[in-house]
Amino acid sequence: MSKTILITGATAGFGEAAARKFADGGWKVIGTGRRAERLRALQDDLGGAFLPLEVDMRDRKAVESLSKLDSPWGDIDLLLNNAGLAPPTDPLPETDWDRVEQVIETNVTGLVALTRALLPKLVERKGHIINLSSVAATYPYKGGAVYAGTKAFVRQFSLDLRCDLAGTGVRVTSIEPGMAETEFTVVRTGGDKDASDKLYAGMDPMTAEDLADLFWWLANLPPHLNINAIELMPVTQSWAGFNVYRE
Ligand code: NDP
Ligand code: 8X3
Fold this sequence. Notes:
Structural class: alpha/beta
CATH topology: Rossmann fold
Shape: globular
Keywords: Oxidoreductase
CATH class: Alpha Beta
Number of domains: 1
Helix content: 40-55%
Family: Belongs to the short-chain dehydrogenases/reductases (SDR) family.
Domain Ketoreductase: 3-182
Pfam family, one: adh_short
Bound molecules: NADPH dihydro-nicotinamide-adenine-dinucleotide phosphate, 2-hydroxyethylsulfonic acid
Protein name: SDR family NAD(P)-dependent oxidoreductase
């Protein structure tokens, strides 16, 4: 019998690539996002294997309703907590509060609310949760405080959740990517496609398909294996040194 994945943020980037990958692989795919037209277009491509649901991760009632889907869609084996975004890299006092709040509510509150609502079902099915953290969770950079803070939360939430789930057979994995070219930077810069193109120019970034391949590999591992965390980067990305302020 085919398995079912719930992907948050299936309208772009990693989530969309994952929806295509898992549908091609014979899974039933529930995809969420705010942009209804993108969800419809994906459904046109994927047909009956895809259930589009317009859900804003900041709407707790809508998020919790995802745990009440009828069978077979309700029989969720894999939750891909992928929906997320970053505020601009401006200094915090200059960053619009609405952007800050939106990021925290989406990346943290929405993710926790959905996970909490789906856990009984995931325990029943010995399912798997894959959470999108980031290299930003571990390596600080200028202008990253709020985004990185949310991703550090996601990483630690993933690890701690494993303690609560001991003995249930449920797997939890934190994925911590570096630079991948999606709509991420266009969104972060408030729609500046040129800035996004410049950021990824000449550095051969990771692609959404790279991440979808990773999710697929994880989903097909034997059930006795838990990958706790994976950090990945394009070969061209590494670290800068410490910043030292001198009088
Ligand atoms: P994209 O901007 O391409 O896609 C983000 C997805 O999240 C969209 O489908 C968007 O859907 C959805 N989303 C955003 N806010 C909400 C919301 N309030 N409610 C519902 N859905 C929402 O970004 P990526 O694919 O690159 O990012 C996916 C995840 O990976 C994010 O969590 C990101 O932080 C993380 N990540 C990305 C990296 C990168 O370099 N690209 C690196 C490390 C981590 P819609 O707008 O339709 O609602
Ligand atoms: C985003 C990854 O390297 O662009 O999560 O900050 S990076």
